[in-house]
Amino acid sequence: MSAKNTGTVKFRLDSKKLPTLPKKKLDALRKLKDDEIDYSDIPPQTNVKWTRPGALVPTENKRQITLRLDADVVSFFKKTGKRYQSRINAALREYVNAQKKVS
């Protein structure tokens, strides 16, 4: 994984080039009433608990520790961008899961 390819999609809205709709479509949207909106292609979501992206492991399960890692390992993960510590954790989790399958 390189520093430029972290799997994160970034989008910046350029205030000088805002996306626009043709006047005809914009007028049609303004006239549309809530009960006229077609939701048939959206599955119903009941009893759904929304979480932050990346909140895969509850914070109460995490412990702050001091860990010595080789400089090149830390450098590699830091080059992958923000949240590099979460990626280190994910790599360690993969190792743990592989060891569980072996035993």
Automatic annotation (TrEMBL):
Domain of life (superkingdom): Bacteria
Pfam families, alphabetized: BrnA_antitoxin (PF14384)
Name of this protein: BrnA antitoxin family protein
Organism listed in the record: Alloacidobacterium dinghuense
